[in-house]
Amino acid sequence: MKKLIIIPMSSVALLILLYVLFNLYIQYYLLPQKWNEVKSKALEQDINIETDSFKYHFPNKVIFQKMSVNWKDKLLYISDKSTVLLKSTAVDSIVIPMADISYRHGSTHLQMRAALIFKNKDKPELQVTTLNTKHIINMEYDKAKRSIHARGNIEDFIFPKADITLVKSLYDIKVSDIDLSSSIKANWAVDLNSLQIRYPLIANDIIETEDLKLSGPVHISYNNNYQINDITINNMSLILNDLKSQIDVRYKEGNLLLKATIPETKIQTIIDSIPEAIAGSIKQMKVEGDFKWSGSYNIPLNNISKMTVQSNPIVKDFRVLKIPDNIDVFKLNNSFTYDISSSSTKHHLSIPAYKDVSMEWMDKVSEHTRKQNQYWRDYAQKKASSKPQVIDKMISKTGIDDEYKFVRLEEMSEWIPKAVLTGEDGDFFFHNGINWLTLKQALEKNMEEGEVQLGASTITMQLIKNLFLTQERTISRKLQEAFLVYLVELQAGILKERILELYLNVVEFGPDIHGIYQASHHFFNKDPKDITIGEAVYLTSILPAPSSYYSIYESGQISSSWFKHMKYYFLVMLQRQRITQEQYDKAIEKPPLFYKDLDK
Description:
The chain is α+β, with helices and mostly antiparallel strands. It folds into 3 domains: 222 residues, no CATH class; 102 residues, no CATH class; 271 residues, Orthogonal Bundle (Penicillin binding protein transpeptidase fold), CATH 1.10.3810. The protein is elongated.
């Protein structure tokens, strides 16, 4: 089973730290601790060590302590139980003028040339330069102070086993109070400047930030085979530009526990601190208000389904002052234009302003009481009275598509919204745009499978993606989506019925088939108000992949296997009391017929 590799941006510094600690443990601690016990002698011939991934070559001018180099479980370690062929020339220092190291993993090939100099027994220096990338390390070790100071620059460095490229960074790493007696203990501080990283899982563009700082105590314990048992990082400070947070990390016996807090911070400071590749157009917003957050994630890596998540956000006095036109969710109650692009055509649609839906319709579809529906209308009216200034207004050069027809909720069959709610977002009227239960289930499934197989998008999230964002499957797009959903549901005064109405009028049902009016006529040659339960369920069933499922229509009829799939929708509608038993019995008798079947 594949495992999903997710490395947040802050982990870049942690990976560098662990890399440094591991190499220093071998090269700086085990050698100097026996400085006065073992005479240094020169090698008579080259040493070559080679495995599937690593290849080490030490020229014959290299001067070592008495030792042997062994390989076990892909980990290099040093012992003095056996010897290599040595001359008897003693020296007062350990020098490695040049060591060539080659690492391969898949398409990644890293070649490094190292110069290691022990000028005295307490303060060795290491310089490593990669031959096929621009990567320089200057490192000092102070045995008396038990400290390490590494600094340098990295360019075009590819992390093994993850599609991550460290495009460019200046870094400064300080590790103090090092204790390697039985485990790795140290206090550490990492400062990354002018960081540029390419990580397609997070964003398609290069992620750039001026300053990323991490610091805190780390404790790593391992067994006799150097397999990690426990990693603890308490009170780790993470500072991204001006955004401060504190993180606790604990890994033990396959269980990962993460705790994090963000102290009360100006929301504008948070927006300004997040890299543009992650924030997108949100970066241009001007806002007021404060944000505070604490959360914990307990993740059994061998049983993701038992993962527990706690999140406690607190937002105070939030208000949007300025917003770019391309993400202006506040306009959704008004008339606006919207561009739909397909592989062959581009349509410029005119969307009319919102008109109140009758309470009788809401009683049939929303599953709320009349009192609850009225409460949300009053809340939306209050929020809608405050609108931000729109900046960077866009002007479309495409003429309005006269063939496009916008359909009001009350002008379509009630089975259309009932079926769509059943298939796409069963609790649409009961959440604020994000269904945390389905989100947790999707995260568990995707982590177990090692890839994105299950989505957790609500109707509001899908609408935001269709109207304001791209279709890219990245973490940054999901973060932008979540923020805009928050604005729609809780700040802009957009009612649920307006969100549902807009979604049904812009969602794709097939190649160049957008909106319920076009879908109803294309598949069944009917106005939306005449669509039956079976026809509404078919249209809902193809929404997860409308272009792929268009082949069902091209085949001329709904197959028995697809109708079996549709019967699940009918059953859920019955269980949710969206249809009666009599309506259910009739619906499962036979599949609906496509329009072209009737034409034959």
